[in-house]
């Protein structure tokens, strides 16, 4: 789109819109087709992320019981599992669907109340609009 963009995190409607947090447009009858498409794509990306974390936890079930390791070790443990997981995925190491039986999708912690409008960054709307335009230029899907 002619503008360099930073990486962004995906958030839901409870997060404040920031130039580093993408969140969907508020669902109402006034959304344009482009905005609805943006929300749809954001939901799809979120489900891909959830599935990736589910597979990571299923393959490396030590991540299901991290509550018994020290906080200092935890980042290294998670990083090691991510690296090993990516190596397995890159080398087509088969994923055993039975591993999923012991793993339930968990709701990630998130704010319970929508962020106040004062926390929203006006510049972030430009980022969301650029992403919205980009998704539109990519076509349906």
UniProtKB/TrEMBL annotation:
<keyword id="KW-0479">Metal-binding</keyword>
<dbReference type="GO" id="GO:0016787">
    <property type="term" value="F:hydrolase activity"/>
</dbReference>
<dbReference type="Pfam" id="PF13359">
    <property type="entry name" value="DDE_Tnp_4"/>
</dbReference>
<keyword id="KW-0540">Nuclease</keyword>
<feature type="region of interest" description="Disordered">
    <location>
        <begin position="99"/>
        <end position="123"/>
    </location>
</feature>
<dbReference type="InterPro" id="IPR027806">
    <property type="entry name" value="HARBI1_dom"/>
</dbReference>
<feature type="domain" description="DDE Tnp4">
    <location>
        <begin position="5"/>
        <end position="86"/>
    </location>
</feature>
<dbReference type="GO" id="GO:0004518">
    <property type="term" value="F:nuclease activity"/>
</dbReference>
<dbReference type="InterPro" id="IPR045249">
    <property type="entry name" value="HARBI1-like"/>
</dbReference>
<dbReference type="GO" id="GO:0005634">
    <property type="term" value="C:nucleus"/>
</dbReference>
<protein>
    <submittedName>
        <fullName>ALP1 protein</fullName>
    </submittedName>
</protein>
<dbReference type="GO" id="GO:0046872">
    <property type="term" value="F:metal ion binding"/>
</dbReference>
<keyword id="KW-0378">Hydrolase</keyword>
<keyword id="KW-0539">Nucleus</keyword>
<comment type="similarity">
    <text>Belongs to the HARBI1 family.</text>
</comment>
């Amino acid at each position: 789109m002619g503008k360099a963009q930073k990486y962004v995190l995906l958030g839901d409607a409870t997060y404040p819109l920031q130039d580093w947090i993408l969140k969907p447009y508020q669902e109402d009858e006034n959304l344009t087709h482009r905005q609805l498409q943006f929300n749809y794509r954001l939901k799809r990306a979120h489900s891909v992320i959830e599935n990736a974390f589910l597979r990571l936890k299923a393959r490396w079930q030590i991540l299901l019981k991290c509550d018994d390791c020290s906080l200092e070790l935890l980042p290294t443990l998670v990083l090691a599992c991510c690296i090993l997981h990516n190596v397995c995925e890159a080398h087509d190491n088969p994923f055993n669907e039975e591993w999923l039986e012991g793993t339930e999708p968990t709701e990630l912690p998130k704010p319970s109340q929508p962020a106040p409008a004062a926390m929203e960054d006006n510049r972030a709307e430009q980022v969301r609009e650029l992403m919205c335009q980009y998704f539109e230029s990519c076509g349906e899907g």
